[in-house]
Amino acid sequence: MNVIATLGASALLTALAASVVAIVASAAGHRFANRALLLAGRRAIIATALLTTMATVTLAYALITNDFSIAHVASVSSRNMQLEMKWASLYSGQPGSLLFWTWSMSLFMAAFTSITVPKIPWGAAHTVATMGAILCGFLVALIFLASPFRVSPITPADGQGLNPLLVDPGMLIHPPFLLTGLVSTSIPFVLGVAALLSGRLDAAWVRHARGWALTSFLILSIGNMLGAWWAYTVLGWGGYWGWDPVENSAILPLLPMIGFLHTLIVQERRGMLKTWNLVLVLAAFALAVFGTFNVRSGLVASVHSFAQSNVGPYFLGLMGLTVLASVILIAWRLPRLHAEADFDALASRETGLILNSYLMIAIGLVILGGTLFPVFSELLRDIRVTVGPPFYNDVTAPLLVLLLLLIVVGTVLPWRGGATGHHVRRFRKPLIVAAASWIVLGVLGMHSLYALAATGLCVTIGYVTFREYFIAARGLRAARGASWPSAVAGIFGRDPRRAGGYLVHLGVAIMAVAVVGSTVYQQQTRHIVSPGETFEVAGYAFHYNDLIAKRPGINGIEVEGLTRLEVTRDGRNVAVLEPGRRFFTNFPDQPTAIVAVDSTLARDLYVFTQGWDKDRKAEIQVFVNPLAKWLWIGGGVYTLGGLLAFGILRRDPVRATSPASGAAPADAEPA
């Protein structure tokens, strides 16, 4: 008997029992108004988190001690793996990733139970019971369908090791952020369900969901950006987003969450969009479950997905149950989801926020449709038609331009409309900036319609953002006599959601410029050269010196072959790059690329080696990606804005207000 496997499996079984207790105790406590049972339900959620933590620690111990009698350990780890990569192997396989998913979810729910549930007596029982049901659903799959503690009948002397594509330091940060971001959508979901079950359909649930939704938005965004960085620096294909079906599944839950962060403000201020906000949080979690199904079903081919198994149909059923329950709940409460106010004017900030959320859903439907199109084509015509990057690029390009336009318009429009003359004054200078940008960019040689439109709008976003900061800081200087640095900091302290949201918009604009530059104006070439030969790309000379072979002997790597390139321009040394290939002992047919990048603010020289022959003649591919570095800079600005939107610099107290009064609390500006 394997003690480690028994301990881990027992912890999961007990966690399942605790989640059932949370459901039963909360339901009974609500039915009979029994505080002891309600408290028992909350404690059961915390107990579930502790038990899944125990199971996770147990599996980590098995990986560290090379307990290859456990099938998961033997399939993803080996004796020559570094300690940090052994930790990464915990969530690399299907059972391990499901355990990490469930563990992360239980931690979120335990934190929510401790922080927020005591503040919502109207929905405490409903949220705890819903959380117990969700945890129960995932624990059943983890225990009975994909157990990470399954013991093999034969214990190998060594494990197989990680999939070569996963042997990278990025494995330590990208999957944890992405998986945690996906499970974090469960918290706004349970609040929405509690609002529907309890009949508390005013802005109360939205106010409590706001911080958790912002957390989910931020973690999901970072997870997707880290995925782009990993694809760019590890996979070796010259890009950072390939519209892979699993990549699509990762970004889908983020889109309704972004929409919710915009439209919740309208419900807070005006008592409107009650149904729509519920739809958004329910859709975000349903799409997170869809991602779990898509990765594990083998339904759509992907380099990221696990092999087809019986876990896929189970999660399809779980997703269907989630959608069905959500639809039934909304239909049940629909007569009580009427708006408390009407639009005062079409040209208002409310309209901009609503259109933004509609656009997020439109983008999501395009991505979801493209992801599932091969399945539908096979069902209807018995032919699997693959949807590739050209489709997504062509369809999302105009949507990106529209998104940038909405950011400009939403920033400039006032709440509840205004006189025509007021609109003219507010829009006059942004229109001049946009027109001037388009003229200058056209003169400089930018002739792509979408690139021209997007870049000009990005410049305009920068202008209107800094104009808003300047106006707010000038007001603080006049009111308090503060210095300019103190006044700028005061903007984020007094009105964090608005100021942080504007910074997020600025980050989006910077990233959009990087996307335009690195895709529309990307140059690439491929050359086969012998040692001592030189080739040129975009004015840069690449001199191939020789092939270098190294045998690191860690993490399953047998050989690293590096092609040493000296890069010059106009006789000046630019960089020395060493792209190559990495070969693995246990995966001889799966070599991976070693990417070399020389990055400046203007461009990236992105180089990788396709291979070489016995005479060391190498096939080298070079990409020149203009403005690519700004993608990561924009991502940093975006993340900083999201962090500041939490109000970490806040000093002023928040003023309460009724939803329909029209008087805004200090933190009720757009995110």
Q: What does it look like?
A:
With 671 residues, the protein is an alpha+beta fold. It has 20 helices and 10 strands. Among the domains are: 1-162; 390-520 and 629-644, no CATH class; 531-616, no CATH class. Helix content is 61%, strand content 11%. The strands form 2 sheets. Strands 2, 3, 4, 5, 6 and 7 form a 6-stranded antiparallel sheet that branches. It has a 4-stranded antiparallel sheet with strand order 1-10-9-8, covered by helices on one side. The longest helix is centred in the middle third of the chain and has 33 residues, at 349-381. The chain starts with a helix and ends in a 27-residue tail after the last helix.
At a glance:
The protein has 20 helices and ten strands. It is α+β, with helices and mostly antiparallel strands. Among the domains are: 1-162; 390-520 and 629-644, no CATH class; 531-616, no CATH class.
List the helices and strands and how they pair.
Layout: H1 3-32, H2 35-64, H3 71-76, H4 83-89, H5 94-115, H6 124-144, H7 174-184, H8 186-198, H9 204-235, H10 245-251, H11 254-270, H12 274-297, H13 311-333, H14 349-381, H15 389-412, H16 420-443, H17 449-480, H18 484-494, H19 496-520, E1 523-529, E2 534-537, E3 540-550, E4 557-569, E5 572-577, E6 580-584, E7 592-594, E8 596-599, E9 603-612, E10 618-626, H20 629-644
Helix pairs in contact: 1-2, 1-6, 2-5, 2-6, 5-6, 5-7, 6-8, 7-9, 8-9, 8-12, 9-11, 9-20, 10-12, 10-14, 11-12, 11-14, 12-13, 14-15, 15-17, 15-19, 16-17, 17-18, 17-19, 18-19, 19-20
Q: Give the strand content.
A: 5-15%
Number of helices: 20
Number of strands: 10
Biggest sheet details: 6 strands, antiparallel
SS-based structural class?
Answer: alpha+beta
Shape: globular
Order of helices and strands: HHHHHHHHHHHHHHHHHHHEEEEEEEEEEH
How large, in whole angstroms, is the Cα Rg? 27 Å
Low-confidence blocks of residues: 303-307, 652-671
In round numbers, the mean pLDDT is 90
Quaternary structure state of the chains depicted? single chain
The percent range for helix content is 55-70%
Task: Report, as a whole number of angstroms, the end-to-end distance.
Answer: 55 Å
